[in-house]
Design goal:
The chain is mainly alpha-helical. 74% of the residues lie in helices and 0% in strands.
Length: 199
């Protein structure tokens, strides 16, 4: 297969690449932005999909982000591929600890009016070990979910505006390039026809 690696990546290298990109974070960001800009849909649809993905990335639902983002994008007439790209661009193993910490702090402030340091969830390691989600809800998941709502909506609104502007500008430039190329092609055809007639 074309462009396949000579030696396949082992499991450890694949995990490392997920956590830390092989090239750089700037290159990864450029990749995601180009993929989003080149989607074939309206600026609103792409921007709504990205906004849905960004919003869902803040929710404490590991493993379900892409599915929930796709449903959210579908509900608001957004592009489903854009929602997956938006989620992947914001949520990764390096950003999730920061996102969850900030959403927990905001949720604690909203629910209890105090800093998270003043309230420590009891036996959190025991609850995680036994996967007791009903008992995890109030001390951990509820504040994270409540905190994710305003933060996710803020980032989703910003990403919608930026993405819609960028996609509109990109599509306008692309249409202008294609029109210019078509004009040059028509002129070349006309010159060729004139040359044939003269000969």
């Amino acid at each position: 297969m074309l462009f396949r690696r000579r030696t396949p990546a082992d499991f450890g290298e694949r995990v490392r690449t997920i956590i830390w990109p092989r090239r750089s974070f700037a290159r990864s960001a450029k990749y995601f932005s180009k993929r989003i800009l080149r989607l074939r849909a309206t600026p609103h649809s792409i921007a709504a999909g990205v906004a849905a993905g960004v919003f869902v990335a803040f929710l404490p639902i590991p493993g379900l982000h892409i599915v929930v983002a796709a449903v959210a994008a579908w509900l608001i007439a957004g592009n489903i591929v854009a929602s997956a790209l938006g989620t992947a661009a914001i949520g990764n193993p390096l950003t999730f600890p920061v996102i969850w910490g900030v959403t927990y702090a905001i949720g604690q402030l909203i629910l209890h009016g105090r800093e998270p340091g003043a309230y420590q969830p009891p036996h959190i390691s025991h609850l995680l070990h036994h996967l007791s989600l009903s008992q995890l809800w109030q001390p951990l998941l509820e504040p994270m979910t409540i905190g994710a709502l305003p933060l996710g909506l803020l980032f989703a609104a910003v990403s919608y505006g930026v993405t819609r502007w960028a996609v509109s500008a990109f599509q306008t430039r692309r249409r202008a390039r294609l029109a210019e190329k078509a004009r040059h092609g028509a002129k070349a055809d006309q010159r060729r026809d004139t040359t044939v007639l003269q000969s």
